[in-house]
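Re: Re: ligand-bound prediction request (bumping)

Still looking for help on this. To restate: I need the protein modeled with pyridoxal-5'-phosphate bound, output as structure tokens. Inputs repeated here so nobody has to scroll up.
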Amino acid sequence: MDQIAYVNGSFVPMAEAKVSILDRGFLFADGIYEVAAVLDGKLIDNASHLARLQRSVEKELVARNNLVNGMVYLEVTRGADTGRDFAFPKGVKPTLIMFTSVKDIVNAPAAKTGIGVITVPDIRWARRDIKSVALLAQVLAKQAAAEAGAGEAWMIEDGMVTEGGSSSAFILTQDDVLVTRQNSSAILPGCTRKAVVALAEERQLRVEERPFTVEEALVAKEAFITSASLFVQAVVTIDGKTVANGKPGPMTDRLREIYIDFARATAL
Ligand code: PLP
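Reply:
Sorry for the wait, this slipped through. Here it is.
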């Protein structure tokens, strides 16, 4: 069955889901987006995604696509004006599109083996806290990772890891402190990151929100990334060098289980 997309008020087959070439998302990357996971036909989430998403339309789209496990992608742009002017158009309706994709996140093979990451300079703009569709820097970073046989790229600024190309970065230090960079305009405030930090703190795990270096990650007990489309995913090599014994660590596996339980319990 053809996938069903949502475009500006209508549910349409994916092949017919189109926006204007004058759409500001296309011309200027003047748009934002959101991704939420679906488990057992229900939207996974926490209050942060809830606040950011148009849940009723998403649920309808999940139902129309008979989606059991996967993701909902949502994008809003400033709409299509009559020409190409940089300043905000007046009286133009925003474009809103959504589509779904199938993915068995819980049983992803990479969760068992772990993934490698490579490091690249963080060449993005200064407002990375906005989930903008201007993702060229991440396209280049993740292409470099794919060419190196790695699963993600960690971006480095001033000697510190900012985050993954499409994920938040964590390490567990030798003295069992979970470290992830604090939210600021340098990173996207990940919803999964937020939930994992809260779940870890509820279990009396020590969490430090601060930047860390690749050197620190290489001598850490464990490393992992989080995102709506991966949940908690072990990182076992960085630039080809192994982290600990090169296998997903017990804390990463535990946090993954805890997150999946939380996700199922809060799914709508
Ligand atoms: N950081 C970046 C740059 C991202 O693009 C993403 C997700 O796409 C994340 C972090 C993880 O955010 P979330 O957990 O809300 O999916």
